[in-house]
Amino acid sequence: MTSDQSIVLAACFNQKYVPQAATMLRSFADSVTTPARWYLVADDSVDQPTHDRLVDFARSRGLTAEAARIPDDLVAGFDDCGYLPRIAWYRAVLAEAFCDEDRLIYLDSDLLVLHDLRPLWEAKLRPGDYFGAIGQPSYGDAAILAAGVGLSPDTPYFNSGVMLMDLALMRAEQFARRTREFAVSDDRPELPTADQCAMNALFNDRWTSLDPTWNCMSSIMLPFLFGAEWRDDRFHDAVTLERAARAPAVVHFEGPAVLKPWNARCFNPFADLYRTYRAETPWPLDALEGRRHDAWFARMSPRLQARVWQFRRWQTGLSRGRS
């Protein structure tokens, strides 16, 4: 690891998410005062001119950034794990890809950074833990995802969109190899979220729970999506979740398409801020995505939209059960 005091960060993205990565970097440039170095990791769908354009944009906002690719030999072994593209496994091999770094903050592209990340960078991990992350509230999809990989209902399931990673320990204990072997094993469970599910299954007792303000997911920001309140979560107290929702350091637009701020129906309160930042990138939104009737849905209150969304999920579950 270099001797400077810079925060080291990485984001991984494909061609579709280049605009989101640019928007995230634009918000980061506005919010972070601590020196930082970025690895902008593109997959094979991103051509080099586009990759260079993103790096140039980051530098134009005063950020230190470099283009990076994951070597094929680090992810080729994941090809046997099913239909998922290689980028779905990039987080699992970051320690091997960046051998000169001992510590790193990983950020998904579909988020906004609203506060300086120095406190996250300096967060203490429990001895022996590979990374710090934020557990998903128990009232969301966490219980389903946890059960799917063999975890008990009382075991937190973390979201991998924001991670503070101990790369040195991950290399020392062959984290990438162990994840790869699990992913391609014949007796593994289904892995709908790829490396996130695999890491939860393999390392459920090797991660440190961080404050939810560092990854304010849709389920934290909008608990009524699941017919819940903050006090219903078994893994965080209500005050902690409310604080994260009202003053998030990182807003993560995870979830289905209607919760993405580039969708006309998105009712996340930070959607307009995302669109403002996106307009200041080389990839502004020409038009919001969505279907013809989404403009009508967008005029509904968030709670009423949530009821519609819940009903659609219920209908989808019924149809799957009948198939």
Write the layout of secondary structure elements.
Layout: E1 7-13, H1 18-31, E2 36-42, H2 48-60, E3 64-68, H3 72-75, H4 94-97, E4 103-107, E5 111-113, H5 118-121, E6 131-135, H6 142-148, E7 158-166, H7 167-172, H8 175-184, H9 195-202, E8 207-209, H10 218-221, H11 238-246, E9 250-252, H12 271-278, H13 294-298, H14 302-322
Parallel strand pairs: 1-2, 1-4, 2-3, 6-8
Antiparallel strand pairs: 4-7, 5-9, 6-7
Helix pairs in contact: 1-2, 1-12, 8-9
Explain how this protein is built.
This protein has 323 residues and is of the alpha/beta class. It has one domain: Spore Coat Polysaccharide Biosynthesis Protein SpsA, Chain A (Alpha-Beta Complex), CATH 3.90.550.10. 36% of the residues lie in helices and 15% in strands. The protein is built from 14 helices and nine strands. It has helices at 18-31, 48-60, 72-75, 94-97, 118-121, 142-148, 167-172, 175-184, 195-202, 218-221, 238-246, 271-278, 294-298, 302-322; strands at 7-13, 36-42, 64-68, 103-107, 111-113, 131-135, 158-166, 207-209, 250-252. A seven-stranded mixed sheet has the order 3-2-1-4-7-6-8, sandwiched between helices. A two-stranded antiparallel ribbon has the order 5-9. It starts with 6 loop residues before the first strand and ends with a helix. The model is unreliable at 318-323 (pLDDT under 50).
